[in-house]
Hints:
The protein is α/β, with parallel strands linked by helices. A hairpin with a 4-residue loop joins strand 20 (390-393) and strand 21 (398-405). The protein is elongated and about 115 Å long. Mean pLDDT is 89; it is low at 1-14.
Amino acid sequence: MKVKADAVLGQDSTWDIAACEALIQELWEIRESMLQAETRAAPWLREADPSHAASAVNLAHYLALRRADLRHLQERLARLGLSSLGRAETHVMANLDKVLGILHRLVGRPWTALTADEPSGSRRGPAMLQAHAVALFGREPPDRAVRVMVTLPSQAAVDEGLVDDLVAAGMDVARINCAHDGADAWRAMADSVRRASRSVGRPVRILMDLGGPKLRTGPIAGSHEVARVKPTKDDLGRVTQAGRLGLRPAGSAATIHGAELCIGVDAAWLAELDAGSRIELVDARDARRRLTVVARQGEGVLVECKRSVYIAAHTLLGRARQDQEAAVTAVHDLPVRPGGLVLHRGDRLNLVREGLGHGPLPAAKGQRAKPATIACTLPEAFEHARKGERIWFDDGRIGGVVRRKTAARLEIDITQAREAGERLLADKGINLPDTRLELPALTATDLEDLEVVARCADMVGLSFAQSAADVRQLRQRLMALGAGHLGMVLKIETRRGFEHLPEMLMAALASPATGVMIARGDLAVEVGYERLAEIQEEILWACEAAHVPVIWATQVLETLAKTGLPSRAEISDAAMSGRAECVMLNKGPHILDAIRTLDDILRRMATHQSKKRHLMRALKAWASLPDPPETAT
């Protein structure tokens, strides 16, 4: 028997009691699975801080809800004009019970509220998320709910004015990266942030990121650079300022004022030079050149040239003498260019436990040729990597596959590089997305750094968090330091970290303030760039269910911060970042412009979108359609 519920379903509805009853049955089954999940999660729930107890329960419910494919169910609910559960993250059980209640009434069955929070559940969930964001980041700024975090450059340790400018531009959270600089610099940065915060009369929180077990390339043998000295010329090619070079005794670090650069020469040879002395040479391009000494400065001299000079390691400098053979000196202490390896698709690369990296070496007598070699900073990787597993260098610019593993090295076939090749430098990141690295998130260095963090920071970032054990270890260490009040931020930057996010969230809810950073740089390399958009969505959903605030990080307005001009794609990315509670900008010469631009974007988007929900603000640009043009008859 069909029931026409025209007031609710419309005149053309084909829904009947059987269809509604089927929906009710499915929803009851889902509800039961959510209650079972809550029971199974009891050990986790007991650990939760009182302020996060309801959040932990909601997370358990959400994970149970998302265990099945609900797309067909959502479509059927939407056709009835009911909630399709698509925005239920913050209040899962309450949302489901509301839908069940409406369906019961549609078929004429009685309904009694099942949960205490059902009548106000849709308001409580977002309010808890907002409260937790305030606990971690401080109160939100006027006109935007999203905070702006900025990574402080090393300069911030000595330039208080820079910190003042960052705060004045709209920085709400200062990030200090403990992978760089040192404890004295961190303290100085933190002191400057506190002073600037007091000056403007608003709180600016401090996040200190621990370095973590970052896998990086080791040192590479450098090469001597050609020293180039050139004069300045006007538009007509006339010399307006001679090029200036400092000569000092080999091995000396003496400063030669006015010199573009300094090189070393033989001390006895140098001692014979005076103002006006002439120096002759054949430079690295086989061009004859003459330099003139313009001043002595202690043990060194300042010389000038009116034509460009290129000086290499084999260049000889001679004193111009008329009465005897010119005395000469070799050059020393040329600037050293950082070493690098140029890798092409099809090349072989050896990854070793330690040592100085080098390019391919030709076969020596009785020995085979050796491929390019580089060390890594975490030899533990050798214990876990396996043949056939992928490896990426430098944020995914260079890719390869482990071809062979020995006790001393991993032999890697390079499979990903540009046609012209890619240059791999020292201290670049290494990712092993297929390898199960059993590394603790807290290194010995991190444990030492925490003593400084506990006194300077408002929250601590756990880099490369991968398990609940990592979270508990950090929590225990903070408690031991009397810093259990500090907020914890879990940085999700590995495949394993993403896979274990639910258990890490449950462990983190034992802290009074906690958050998650989507570290999209390493994460994209680990999971694949094509999956990044999908995965960051899933992280946002899970964190919203746990009422845990999120930091949207890595390459936000990166081009703007570095060059002063944004790309169109990163403007769209910045607009999407408003779905998080905090957005992180990295340092750059145009960082103040980046802060102001992000602030403007976030304020505008706040009137259009809240998390996944689109807000229907009046579209003032389209007030109404104009009258149609008259049609000619």
